[in-house]
Amino acid sequence: MVPAGLATGEYLVALAILDRQGGLTPSARFACVNYVTGGWHPLGVVGVGCAPARTEPDAALFASPAFDNTLAYKVPERLLVVKPPPVPKFTPVEPWKMDLHREILNPYRYWDIIDGHLKFAAQRRVTYDGPVPGVAGAKVITAFGEFCPSTFWYTSNVKLPPGRYQLSFRYKGTDGLRIQCDLIDGWPPVASCPVLRVTPAWQREQLEVTITTALKRGVGLRFSLPQGVGREFSVTDYHLRQLE
What we know:
Jelly Rolls; 15 strands; mainly beta
């Protein structure tokens, strides 16, 4: 609505967002070229009682919103005296810590899937229905879909010293799969398991390995998945520790 006493002439129409709590002053800026210092965004030129010479705003009026330091939020005193609520009580979660003689593989660490053809057809799923005795909600990592062929692996930056180690894990999957499992240093294998003969029922693998040279990249666990469509392979309860 145009005020009744508005004089005849040309006027610049501009848009602004006003701060309702801080005196109804402009308080925001849009990411656009049409900007006037103070939080105003020109839309065009209109005439009151006359036709404007042009409807587009003069570009010489524009400023960069990135360098406008005139805008500020004003907080009313009644809001400043409000006290924040007390911090709720919580029990902090103790972060996982590696112990060479108890556990080296971080159960919270991410597992990845890669394939030689870059098809990215195989997928990864995490559930908590593992068969670990006495452990409710045991984490299960599953690779499923199209193996072409693919590599399902866990990596870390833990550089193991030379010594004797015990590796164990549980696995299951599509009946008849033959899968090679390797303990790796970044990528090169440092020890291999016997070929896993997969069945739909959980099985447990455990073996002792000897590392003669300190790892340089970081210990990992790699499963080589043979080519095929509609296949599935799951692993859980994976552990590695240094023997006394």
